[in-house]
Amino acid sequence: MARTPRDLTGRVIAITGGARGIGRATASACVRAGMRVAIGDVDVEVARRTADELAHGTIAVALDVCDRGSVRDFLDVAEKRLGPADVLVNNAGIMHLGTFAEEDDDSTRRQVDINVHGVLHGMKEALPRMTARGSGHIVNMASTAGRAGFAGAATYSGTKHFVVGASEAVRFELRASPVEISCIMPVVVNTELAAGASNARLVGKLEPEDVADAVVRTLRIPRFEVFVPRYMSAMMTFAAVLPRPAREGLARALKADEVFMTRDDGARREYELRAARSEPGLRASPREPELDE
Fold it and tell me: DSSP assignment of 123-168, as one string?
């Protein structure tokens, strides 16, 4: 029997990396759904402008997901001003493109810090609050790169595999709890993070609003794996049962192995320069992109 969709009106949602991209689109979709929204971002000035533009009581809070104390403060402020957080969306993330052997250690470290530790910090801080209240939903922004490795984005793929694996393990730990865990796994999305990336055959770039709509649908009717677009679920399931040579042949036929390898570095430059300046204390190097998903 089909489940009745949850009414989201008045529910409180906290979104990391909410100033731009998928985070902003998700915040906007949640405002339209009647939710009370807190966005956290390392670029607090942009986050404040976003909150002002979204209106309807949306608040912005300075947030560095690499610092667990900052994540705790973000949730504390959100709950003090809006009420207990019903939902946390771990959205903040970065991606460095290039061959793995040429990736510098600082870029690797930043991706792991933000994409891995940022998600862990969010879950560690939100779960005790939610389990104590007997309700809650954590949505982790993963990627189809969390189910397949993509050339040109090896570390990013590894971090997203981690997000999916950790989320699945935590979901098992919570099986007797009403707290929900979901992983959103979009293909390439038309945000600054994916600037300059090419498209695989049969799969064009999504818009951030496509992912945001999937998040809202998942909040209404929770699921663990949420592929965007939906047909990617069947495609990934089919690919998983193929022998390794056939799976790699399919990836080549779809040009999935070229999405990040045939990138346009010029199209990424502005993003990387802005991103490198987005956090106080970071060295202003275009090789260290800081971005929200």
Answer: HHHHHHHHHHHT--EEEEE--GGGTS--TT-HHHHHHHHHHHHHHH
Distance CA 63, CA 41 (A): 5
CATH of the domain at 81: 3.40.50.720
Could you give the maximum distance between any two Cα atoms of the chain, in Å?
Answer: 55
Hey, what are 169's tokens? 């393990």
Is 149 a domain residue? Answer: yes
Cβ atoms within 10 Å, residue 225? 18
- Given a contact cutoff of 8 angstroms between Cβ atoms, the answer to whether 60 and 42 are in contact is no
What 3-state DSSP class applies to 62? Answer: strand
Tokens of 7: 């009414």
Q: Is residue 281 assigned to a domain?
A: no
Distance separating the N- and C-terminal Cα atoms of the chain: 35
The answer to whether the beta carbons of residues 263 and 276 sit under 8 Å apart is no
In this predicted structure, the answer to whether residue 101 has a pLDDT above a threshold of 70 is: yes
The span from the CA of 64 to the CA of 16, in Å, is 9
pLDDT single digits (tens) 208-243: 999 999 999 999 999 999 999 988 888 787 777 778
Task: For residue 100, give the 3-state DSSP assignment.
Answer: helix
**pLDDT tens per residue, range 104-157:** 999 899 999 999 999 999 999 999 999 999 999 999 999 999 988 889 999 999
Residue 1 lies in a domain: no
Q: Which of 156, 227, 260, 271 is catalytic?
A: 156
- 106 within a domain of the structure (yes/no): yes
Q: How many other CB atoms sit within 10 Å of the CB of residue 130?
A: 23
- Global pTM value: 0.89
The question of whether 156 is a catalytic residue gets the answer yes
What range does the domain containing 221 cover? 12-230+245-276
Q: What domain count does the chain have?
A: 1
pLDDT digits (tens, 9 = 90+) for 14-36: 999 999 999 999 999 999 999 99
